[in-house]
What we know:
- The structure is a single chain.
- With 114 residues, the chain is an all-alpha fold.
- It has one domain.
- It has helices at residues 4-52, 61-80, 83-112.
- Helix 1 runs antiparallel to helix 2 and helix 2 (61-80) runs antiparallel to helix 3.
- The longest helix has 49 residues, at 4-52.
- It comes from Thioalbus denitrificans.
- The chain crosses the membrane at residues 32-52, 84-106.
- This is Nicotinamide riboside transporter PnuC.
- Keywords: Membrane, Transmembrane, Transmembrane helix.
Amino acid sequence: xxxxxxxxxxxxxxxxxxxxxxxxxxxxxxxxxxxxxxxxxxxxxxxxxxxxxxxxxxxxxxxxxxxxxxxxxxxxxxxxxxxxxxxxxxxxxxxxxxxxxxxxxxxxxxxxxx
Length: 114
C-alpha cells in the first residue's frame, strides 16, 4: 500500500513548482512594466524640461510633451503606493496642462480671431 504522506508531498511539490513558475512569470512582467514606466518618465519628462527651457519658438511644445509623460508618473505612483508622489503628479499635470492652454491653445485662438 502506498504511503499517503508521500503522495501528498508529491502533489505539493508539483503545485509549488507550478506556483513558482507562475510567480516568476509575473515577476518578469512586473520588471518589464517597471522598466517601461521608468523609461517613459525619463524620456518625456527630460525632453519636456529641456524643451521648455529653450529660447526657440518651438519650446512651447515642451508643455505638451510633459503632459504626455504624466500617465507614466501616475502609474509609478499608484504601483508603488506613494500617495505623496500621486498628489504632486496631480499638481504637475495641472501645471503642464496650464502651459499647454496658455502657450499653445490661446495663441492659436488669438491668431484665428478676425
